[in-house]
Amino acid sequence: MTDVSLIGLGPMGIALARALQPRYTLTLWNRTAERAKPLLNQGTLLAADARSAVEASPIVLMCVADYAAARAILAMPGVAAALRGKVLVQLSTGTPQDAREAWAAADGVAYLDGALLATPGQIGRPDTPLFISGEERALAACRPVLETIAGNLMYMGEAIGNAAAWDLATLSCMFGAMSGFFHGARICESEGLGVGEFGRMIGAISPVLGEMIRAEGDAIEAGRYGEPESSMATCAGSGRLFVKQAREAKLDASFPHFLAGMFDRALAAGYANERLAAMVKVLR
Ligand SMILES: NC(=O)c1ccc[n+]([C@@H]2O[C@H](COP(=O)([O-])OP(=O)(O)OC[C@H]3O[C@@H](n4cnc5c(N)ncnc54)[C@H](OP(=O)(O)O)[C@@H]3O)[C@@H](O)[C@H]2O)c1
């Protein structure tokens, strides 16, 4: 018997294994067995098949490409039966519906659904975020293991889809900001400015940007769109400047046009004198 079994050794699974190795004995399984070789030692064993991996430990972590891959593994001979009475933590990325279906299929298993908001290089740090949802009792059994891989564990409640919902909402925020960042990088390039410096500056002022996002979230929750410090009309003016600058500097204008289109919809809907948060009413 080992402390933890880990299924899936892509870049993320390998990072999880390395973070756990100093504290726990591990049993590994991966579809492509060779990937486990550099990780094996006295306390880290390779299982011959998925069922043996599940049998080896009371806590089973799974981190594979998606839920289709996870389902394929869970359908392998003997795996479902071997999981009964154990804690299964699903760390593969999916939708809330994926999580609900996986939970419904996990008969007799203490199932937790998790989402790591980090790159493999960030695993094992005290500030690494991990969203977890599911039964609190199951979490109690494996909290120290999960906090070893991601110190900033955020329990999002019993509703099994919550971790995936928080994950996708956060990724939407991140990739939205990244899309804007890449267009910003083209603006910098068009003026001969350093993109690395631009990235470092954004990192440095991110608490201020975070404050703006938090204020819009509070406004949406309260349904409070009036008395804007910065009105939709003012923000739409900046949106038009992106389009103008892209034309002047002959840049790809897909991001400026997307943004200007969103502002046009908000102005057409009559939100010119409301705060930016009113954009959510356009999307609704
Ligand atoms: N990398 C990141 O920055 C990051 C960040 C947060 C969350 N995640 C999530 O973590 C999960 C794993 O990501 P990853 O970066 O390690 O790489 P990945 O390429 O998304 O997943 C690779 C893993 O999935 C396995 N796999 C794929 N299809 C399979 C199938 N049909 N049956 C069995 N196993 C299958 C691979 O096995 P083989 O080795 O045999 O191909 C390997 O273990 C994903 O859901 C990803 O979204 C990743």
TrEMBL record:
Ranges where the 6-phosphogluconate dehydrogenase NADP-binding domain occurs: 4-157
Residues in the signal sequence: none
Ranges annotated as spanning the membrane: none
One term of GO molecular function: oxidoreductase activity
Gene3D superfamilies: N-(1-d-carboxylethyl)-l-norvaline Dehydrogenase, domain 2, NAD(P)-binding Rossmann-like Domain
Keywords: Oxidoreductase
Ranges of residues in domain NADPH-dependent reductive aminase-like C-terminal: 161-284
The protein's name: NAD(P)-dependent oxidoreductase
